[in-house]
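Lab manual, section 2.4: Encoding a predicted structure.

Procedure: take the sequence of the chain (477 residues), apply the prediction step described in section 2.3, and record the output as structure tokens. A sample record is shown.
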Amino acid sequence: MPSRQPSSAPSPHHPPPSPGGFLGGLAKLLLLIILLVLVVLPFTPAAGKIKRALAEIFQGKTTVREVIKRVEVPVQKVVERKVVEKVEVEVPAPPPPLPSNFVPRKETDLASLFNGISINTQLQTSQGTYASLEKLDPAAYQVRFQVDIRIPKANQSVDELARINPELPKALPGLRDMLSTSRISGFYHLLYDNKVKAVSRDLTRLNKVLDRHNFFDCETILELKHPTTSRKALLIQSEMDVVADGSDGDRMASMTADIYQSDYYQPFTSYAWKKQTKTPNPLLARWETRLKDAKAEYAKKGLTAERNRQLKALISQLTLEITDFKSRSSLIAETDPFIVLSLLFRNQDKNSAHTPQIGDYAVVIHGNQILPAICGDYGPSMKMGEASLLMAKQINPKATPYWRGESDLKVSYLIFPGTAKKPLGPPNLVEWRNQCIQYLGELGGIGSAYHVHEWVDVIQWKRDFVGPPWPLPKASS
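Recorded output:
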């Protein structure tokens, strides 16, 4: 029986332990740690620093540290003063409470338009039905115009006429006798009837309505007849607007632009006669240029129908006026004393023996002046009181085509109907004055302290003297 080997003997299946086992394990642990560090280090912030340090070592460079010494300099402290403005903020009042139901309103406002018409406006509201129904009813939202006009009473007595011009009864001594048989002319009533119709026509265009001044522009129209001589006269008390119309190449070969370029200027007057010389009308060349330009534009293609209509009418008008320039002459408002008749007198001679017509003689009495004149043109049928620029300047030297000779109803126009001499011809100021003196004599004459003005021939004045003809010298009777 074999003997048993001691337990301390090595087994033939296990090698004997190495004498450096502990140190070897430690070395393996350190190696493992180094490997882990090398693997993780590139992903840390220190990797860049280590790389730069190694590069400097291998390149033999050294790091120089610059030491900057800080020196503290004392700075003067600036104290900034802040100015604070006291701002008062207005706290708005709380809005009024919302209405809880409908409240009817009635408001009245009194104002005036630029043309002098007083406007009394009343706004009134009332409860209606639903909006979808009210919008279908024109009466639910409307304006009703009610125009109140007082038609003025005509002067007829001596005292009433003298209230306008105290000189009138003294200038016309026979006036008192004629007034006893006078009557207010139907032309007076027709004039104010025309005015009312004009207002009615333009009522919805308030800015176009005849203004207050032009509505109340006539104080009276009286039909007079002298009891002894049977001389008829039409007496009108009114204002004096200014007309600047008319042209005549025979007497005045040139005109100032401020006249023919003024608003409402017309180159002709109703009083006209056959041209007597070959001197062209001063406006002929200008009108021919206008006609040429109008025809040239009318020939263009692409114009609107409205513009074509306007040009066609303008061409027709200019053609007629150019024909008149070449064949007729007219009064000149700058140089000729004439008054303007309202169109309401036109073609009324069969209705009244006192109907004035173009060419009839007349005198204008203003203050103590008695100015001889001719009925030279027609004006609007709803207006009264207009005369030539020459006559207006005699009454008021400041008169222009835009400035009245007299704005108050202080002008008396005494017209002698049926006295026109045909055919009409160029103005003869001496003859006109003599005729007016004769007709005044047939009405009882004029007062001893008065005389009929003697007009100066303005055209001759301009030929003989340099400069404007105003003021004209006053000629004696």
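Check your result against the sample. The longest strand covers residues 232-243.
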